[in-house]
Amino acid sequence: MNYLIIGNSAAGISGAEAIRKVDKTGKITMVSAEGYPPYSRCLLSYYLAGDIEEKKLLFRPEDFYEKNKIEVLLGKKVEKIEPEKKKVILAGKEEIAYDKLLIATGASPKLLNIKGEDRKGVFGLRTVEDVQNILQRLDKVKVAAVLGGGLIGLKAAYGLRKRGLRVKVIIKSNRVLSQMLDERAAAIFRKRIEENGIEVMTGLAAEEILADDGSVKGLKLDNGASVDCQLVVIGKGVTPNIDLVKGTAIKVSRGISVDEKQGTNISDIYAAGDVAETVDIVSGRTTINALWPCAVEQGRIAGYNMALRKSGEKAGEEHKYAGSIGMNSIEFFDLPVISIGITRPGEKGYEEVIRDIPEKGFYRKIVLRDNRIVGAILLGRINPAGVLLSLIRDKVDVSEIKDEIMEETFNYSRVVHLMKEEKISETDRLFNQMVG
Amino acid sequence: MKYLFCNLEKCLGCKSCEIACALEHSRSKDLFQAVEEKPSPRYRLKVEYGKERAFPLACRHCDEPACVVACMSGCLSKDSKTGAVVQDEERCVGCWMCLMVCPYGAVNPDGERKLPLRCDRCREKEEPACVVACPTGALVFMEPEEFKKTVTRNSQPVTKKTS
Ligand SMILES: Cc1cc2nc3c(=O)[nH]c(=O)nc-3n(C[C@H](O)[C@H](O)[C@H](O)COP(=O)(O)OP(=O)(O)OC[C@H]3O[C@@H](n4cnc5c(N)ncnc54)[C@H](O)[C@@H]3O)c2cc1C
User: Fold this and answer.
1) What's the pTM value of the predicted model, to 2 decimals?
2) Chain B closest-CA separation from residue A300 CA (Å)
3) Which CATH architecture fits A122-236?
4) Ligand 1 test: best mutation among A41, A301, A339, most atoms within 8 Å of CB?
5) Interface predicted TM-score of the whole assembly (ipTM), two decimals
């Protein structure tokens, strides 16, 4: 068997590991446009901030490929897939044939499409190269502007602030982390980052990036005001890398459409990670939850299913993906916050339970539909986040414990009796003493 | 594989296990010195409370650990030999992704060190410190089959107990 994986990040690596678990001898080839060993994008802001050194970006040991008998081609971009011929074409026209293909090409930062975006000193925060370029430029910079107040924008702002710059975050909506948090949690969070020297400007957008001699010197905002800055980081979300499947029969919606086995509509071609569109457990709709844990899980499922043999041959077990879920965890300046699922229901039919204890820096909210939790925000004391996540995942009726969930000491032992029988493993039965 | 089980009927919620755990993970391993240590020694197993009784909770070293999947620094892995979930504290950046996905809430965040703490079964020790310290013999380190024999057949899920 000849496996080919495009992409060398969360989804690609976990795909390769799963294949190797099932198929010890098949040939695995990985191709990546980036010429870098497997590194975690999620750590880039820590590297930017100087919290970790560059070599800590790697999330697998250096001998990973060798140990797993993987042939790796770094710094090679796949331009096109030819499903009928079962091969891919690299830039420079080199070809690679495959029996089974995993597309794990991830995503790229969205552009703003405003004037001046191509100037020197304008960056995204997606690759190790982005950070290296930003770091190289730092000595020319006093003020940095970050466009976008989502997770990436704020992580960029944090990193730049830690490097001693003046940082201004410009946000179109009326609050920070508007996808993750409600008004109250966002206000608490905003206060904390402002107290630590990051300037936040809401309800504003950049209309143009101004330059002097090709290099950034400021921004023109949509209210007519201008901002002086020598560096701009754009954090406006990501868009899936699907160029290589354009013009093929592989079905694409926003990302590549996959079934619960992570297979595309074309047999022997799978997709996983930020490039793949899966079913969201909470909304029931297909979407891209561009998150590390989702990419790892999807890659793993794809890998297992790719290595699965037809009946008769030695077979592994068929694996199905339960669906993705929007969630994230972030901590700045000693204030941690976790957000899961629907946190700002726009429509009727939802119930919100909130507990806000400002003097303790405690804020917790759950959002329910038909007595089932569909979303949560935990700020300050984040401990039971995972317990809430499993209540959301398993759609457990929590009508009798709504108040308990709001208690600071809420914990797993309070939900054991509500869990669905089939969701509790044999060992857990012993742990929970549910014998007899 | 052996697990850290607790016979809930025997547990009085005295928290000797928490102290033993923190001490075992301190630098000095001496109670009087440990209280002075900075960062403060922290326990990895926590005595949680149900409505009616105590419920010591620690990492269960799952077969398919959600925390390992979610770990974005690569510091968590499942040891194929021992079955334990192991953490390379040097590589951890304190992103709390593992805490976010642990269905048991068994990850204890150390805010001081920005480190998610989980039971490491006292590594090379034959018996974890909490088991040694437990005055009622409620905490045990056993194979599931062995533990099964020791619990009464009519025990109830923890929150249903009313006596
Ligand atoms: C700064 C930052 C912080 C983040 N923080 C978090 C966080 O806290 N929590 C969280 O859950 N997620 C976070 N994320 C998101 C997370 O990093 C992604 O969800 C994850 O990396 C997706 O993995 P992936 O394998 O699908 O794709 P990617 O990581 O995007 O990797 C894509 C791979 O495909 C290769 N590739 C792309 N196109 C081609 C081509 N045509 N030919 C060959 N190779 C190609 C690339 O070189 C790369 O190896 C963060 C991301 C960033 C940038």
Assistant:
1) 0.95
2) 9
3) 3-Layer(bba) Sandwich (3.50)
4) A41
5) 0.94
